[in-house]
Amino acid sequence: MKRIVCLLLLCVAFAQLPVRGASLADYREKLYDLFIEQKIPQWGAVLTQMSADKSCATLDGRHEILCGYYGLIGHLVDKKRKTEAQNYLKTALALSEKYQKLYPQDARFKALYANLLGLKIALSPLKATTLAPSMLSSAREAYKLAPNDSWVSILYGNILFYMPGMFGGDKAEGLKCYQHARQSMEKNASLNAHHWLYVQLLVTIGVVNERNEHYEQALSMYKTIMNKYPGYAFVRDVLYPRAQKAMREKR
Known about the structure:
The N and C termini lie far apart (81 Å). The longest helix is centred in the middle third of the chain and has 21 residues, at 82-102. The protein has 13 helices and no strands. By secondary structure, it is mainly α. Helix 12 (215-228) runs antiparallel to helix 13.
């Protein structure tokens, strides 16, 4: 009986201890793991937790949160899950407004805002004429502020690559931005190797080359990804075979 009482007292004592929250590095790793496992829709719960965690109430933490929403919404748009994408976009735009007020000269927040507007256009194409000028302006301002920032290069590259030429798009310049971002991120491999945005960047470069019918470059990039991230089945099972087939058909 005394032993049971002692155990109960210990349980009560431990329950009253403060629970240590996850660190920002822990959250980064969780987002990366879910990306590799192709479980990006589960990011929503992680991002909600990050938004409520004081350990993420820093500039770096807020960068990760908003960038995570950008990646999640983009994935949902790609998968035709429009309602979910719209709901998360509403949250992301509110956070973007809040963060830009806190950090009015932060290039990453300006670039992320531009990309969120791009996703809004993807969900509501009729809004393109009204939203495109703000999107392009914010992207250009971000790039002007931090042309050597890898995230900004990626996000500006997105705008240039996917924006129609009549609105200021430039696919060749977009690819240059992606390549510049890759070089920059690989200079700090210890930080970026397990960041979902870096893996997505490599995939994007491969896909861009594939769309341009540069199949050898695309296959080379996909091989690089498979070697670095053997658990990322999407490249092995979908992208690499698709590029192989397209190259055979071209011949």
